[in-house]
Structures
1.
Amino acid sequence: MSARTQRILIVDDERELAEGLAEMLTLLGYPVEIARDEQHALARARAQAFDIAFVDSRMPTMHGSELFFEIRQVMPMARVVMMTGFREPILDRALQAGAEGPLLKPFSIKDMLKTIDTAPADAA
């Protein structure tokens, strides 16, 4: 699969960050959707398949690591990358179960692109 055909879901309640990332990725040719909360993210995942989801660790009603497990039930083959501004032990459970990252905020679009273009270790 070409990098530009990967469908991307960005899940972050920080509106400006999510929209900025989506705008940059869209300009680079990636199809991108944004979800600002957990329920919207799950609805998006049920409505269409995504290849990779970038999920913030701190969401309004559910921790991002819990959302990882919910997304995995809906999209078992999708890559899920945890984004965080904090190194939290609660992320370890998701990372041990197959989530990627964490992508530490603040990160550059180059960091995000590197993550998109790098296959997870177990896919090699």
Note: The CA atoms of residues 69 and 76 lie 9 Å apart.
2.
Amino acid sequence: MKFSTRARYGTKALLELSLRWGKGPVLLKDIAQRQEIPLQYLEHLIRPLVQAGIIKSTRGARGGISLLKPPREVILSEVIQLLEGSIAPVACVDNPELYPRSDRCVTHDIWAEVKKAMDGVLKSTTFEDLVERQKEKWNLKQPKDRQKQCVNGRDMEKKR
């Protein structure tokens, strides 16, 4: 199962907002730059997140986007569901009536177990968890005399 670019970029954008929780709105162009997300794509991506009440958009000189609730209250599964839809590896897991023999099909059972396992991980992960994991990665890779930022799995030096 592969998540779409939409789900991956949406998660990265919300992680960026979570890392800056409580510091005011963040400009879309800054998120796009730090996370290497095309700005136009990001502009379209935030609409469903605003509509779902996960983030808010603020206009004006000090505008940008920000989380509406603390990162500990934003669950990864709700974001993935919103941006991706079902994570079932095959359609019959969500709709057994699509395949009349699903109750006798052993592979159906395996796909259902895969979905259940993925749901478990996504439902038990908050954006606060992701922030903590990100900070751990930075601390493991970061020399004490300079600060680095992780972008697409690469370290980019951040000038002071």
Note: The chain has a mean pLDDT of 87.
3.
Amino acid sequence: MKIAVLGAGAWGTAISIVLHARHEVRLWARDAALIEALRADRVNRRYLPGFTLPDSLALDEDLGVVLRGVDLILIAVITNGLREMLQRIRAAGFSAPLVWLCKGFESRQARLPHQVCAEELAPGVPRAVLSGPSFAEEVARGLPAALTLASTDGGFAREAARILHGATLRIYPSEDVVGVEAAGAVKNVMAIAAGVSDGLELGLSARAALITRGLAEMTRLGVALGGRAETFMGLAGAGDLILTCTGDLSRNRRVGLALARGAPLT
């Protein structure tokens, strides 16, 4: 299976490292200087230092070269970069099935990723979201993780999950795209709040209460947006929320800790 990973940040690099053992993987970045450094060092010192890129992992800044003949596209850019990435794929004439790995709302129009995809992709292009409790550093190390892959096309969800599923990266299919995306977006807010709570030394009981009540609020919002309540009890909901609120590798939790120390939110 030929897979293109678009975005050489920490998550894109980590999933490329994991998938290369079972598939032909091509990693793309818009920054030619970054690609050149990756080729020279075989280490992503900017975003994921300490991990050697396999020799079989192809690297290129030419989108057309990376996408040519691929069976599946993984988009690992930030949510605010998703629309432009989809436009570039479409302009280049490619329409392979795709999965996006970003979380959150598009800031300009408060769109969830699937809404952006609906506006930018042809209706027949198979698509899905991959989300759940995962730190890029742990995934790159080969530590076990489990994620949810959701598509309104149940057949594509199962097929894409089968392709990405491996010994240490377990993928479970779902058809609740809205619930998975809403959970992935809102849990980041709760993680900042949990960091503030810990930074103010309010105690473990306060943090547990915050996470529990936060999950209830996430669920209500997700259901109001069209998601399913049970999704928020699974990997994409409770799993990702707990990890992001308590894990030391969580960027959003670290933001909360910094805010508690009086650092400005820049």
Note: The chain has a mean pLDDT of 96.
